[in-house]
Amino acid sequence: MTLSLTWHGHSTVQLDDGTHSLLIDPFFTDNPVATMAASDVSCTHIAITHGHGDHFGDCPQIAKACNATVIAAYEICEYLAEQGHAACEPGNPGGCIITDFGSVSFTHAFHSSSFEGRYMGMPCGLIITMGGSTIYHAGDTGLFGDMQLIGETWKPDLVLLPIGDRFTMGPELATTAAEMIGAPAALPIHFNTWPLIEVNPDAFAPRNVEVLRMQPGETIDVGAVASTQ
Ligand code: NI
Ligand code: MN
Fold this sequence. Notes:
By secondary structure, the chain is an alpha/beta fold. The chain is 20% helix and 28% strand. The chain has 6 helices and 16 strands. Strands 6-5-4-3-2-1-16 form a 7-stranded mixed β-sheet. Helix 4 links the parallel strand 12 and strand 13 (158-162). The model has no long low-confidence stretch (mean pLDDT 97). Nickel (II) ion is lined by residues 50, 52, 55, 111, 140, 167.
């Protein structure tokens, strides 16, 4: 089985197993580092970590255009249902949703979650099994001790961690997070999108973890990364 990962910049990533295409935290419109427009995106599923505009903003439009199934917190699914989008899989931290590509489990994340002033449920991290790999997208979060438990429980092949500071961990705390999670590879996300989250990504340097340095728009083969360990 193969799995490709495209980083669209910020926290937006797309996983593709050749049959299904899962878009996580779609943010193209008003994203200064995005290399494509929301209207050009094609996917079968969308997963959302939390309701902030830089993670959820393009979800309603893309979900409708692609008739994609949305996997998200209960309150986010309620919002989408009000907008007329019926294909939703609601969840909450601790829960696992079996999908036709694999599964999505919700972990907690230390953050907030609202959209246009409306409460959007718990902010989450996502554990995705797809194409023979397990990926942990931590969403927006501070450092928390249960990251070690998440690593032991799901044994992710790859972890995606925010490193932009101010609203999430900075590179130093994310380094600690990556070492606690213990995945063989890590991709830093949610940095250098705007001046407020400008950091030196080289300061993200966990021991015994391969750090993937990607550019927005770049695609990698996740299976090849995991199998080199
Ligand atoms: Ni956020
Ligand atoms: Mn964010």
